[in-house]
Write a structure and sequence with these properties.
Elements: H1 14-18, E1 24-26, E2 32-34, E3 38-41, E4 44-47, H2 53-72, H3 79-95, H4 106-124, H5 133-138, H6 144-161, H7 166-169, E5 174-175, E6 182-183, H8 197-207, H9 210-213, H10 218-231, H11 234-241
Antiparallel strand pairs: 1-2, 3-4, 5-6
Helix pairs in contact: 2-3, 2-4, 3-4, 6-8, 6-10
Length: 242
């Protein structure tokens, strides 16, 4: 444990956070570990309300800075090379740990979509205010909200069918009643609890068509899931995630 780099964060509602009276802990080594409102964990900025506002702001700044630099050398690259670079440096950042964005505010979700739109415009050589809806389809990219659903559904499939770690597989149990097998969805009261993977994972998996969930291999499931999500309208996606 590196005392100088250790921080403490308590996540909860304002009511819970207001009850915390201490500002830090004094260790025997002479170092004081402070309570903070935001910490960096595996590259993700986590705030004490789990809004992920700081993470989205940081990600947006990083991605737009990268896109500006790519635009400076765009004339030297073919479209295929440009697409590869944008996917490697921007889209990969947008997809990293994107399951945590489930349940964030619509405003923050729109900010993430702006990043994806800007990346598509760089690849397709569009201007700032051009529409990119059709270009995203031509690039075969799911929109941000669908990419979040894709990541959660994929982790759920792996948890049910074996490739996932044990701590994820332990979250999934079948309810053996009725004519069809459904995963048990735990009963949570708070909105923050209903954003957890142990809740939303089984719920999304249950809402998927049986033809998808019964896929024989991960690659088949991924391919069919992407096709399925492409065809979903916004209200159908909301129903899948609700």
């Amino acid at each position: 444990l590196n005392d100088s780099k250790t921080q403490i964060i308590v996540c909860g509602s304002n009511k819970v956070l207001n009850q915390i009276q201490i500002q830090g802990i004094h260790l025997t080594t002479g170092t004081t570990v402070r309570f903070v409102n935001c910490v960096k964990n595996l590259g993700v900025q986590m705030d004490n309300h789990l809004t992920f506002r700081e993470q989205v702001v940081h990600l947006k700044q990083k991605c737009f800075r990268t896109l500006r630099n790519i635009c400076k050398i765009r004339f030297l690259l073919t479209r295929s090379q440009l697409r590869t670079i944008v996917n490697s440096l921007v889209v990969s950042c947008l997809d990293y740990c994107n399951g945590i964005y489930f349940g964030i505010s619509g405003q923050l979700l729109n900010q993430l979509q702006l990043i994806q739109n800007a990346a598509a415009k760089v690849v397709t050589n569009k201007y700032k205010y051009d529409h990119v809806g059709e270009d995203l389809e031509k690039l075969h990219r799911l929109k941000v909200k669908k990419r979040i659903a894709f990541k959660i559904a994929l982790l759920a499939y792996k948890s049910v069918n074996g490739p996932a770690p044990d701590y994820l597989k332990d979250m999934f149990r079948y309810a053996h009643h009725g004519h069809t097998l459904k995963l048990i969805v735990p009963q949570f009261i708070s909105a923050s609890s209903r954003r957890s993977f142990s809740y939303i994972g089984p719920k999304i998996f249950n809402n998927l068509p049986t033809t998808l969930t019964s896929s024989d291999a991960v690659d088949i499931f991924k391919r069919n899931l992407k096709t399925y999500l492409f065809k979903l309208q916004d209200h159908e996606l909301d129903k899948l995630l609700s």
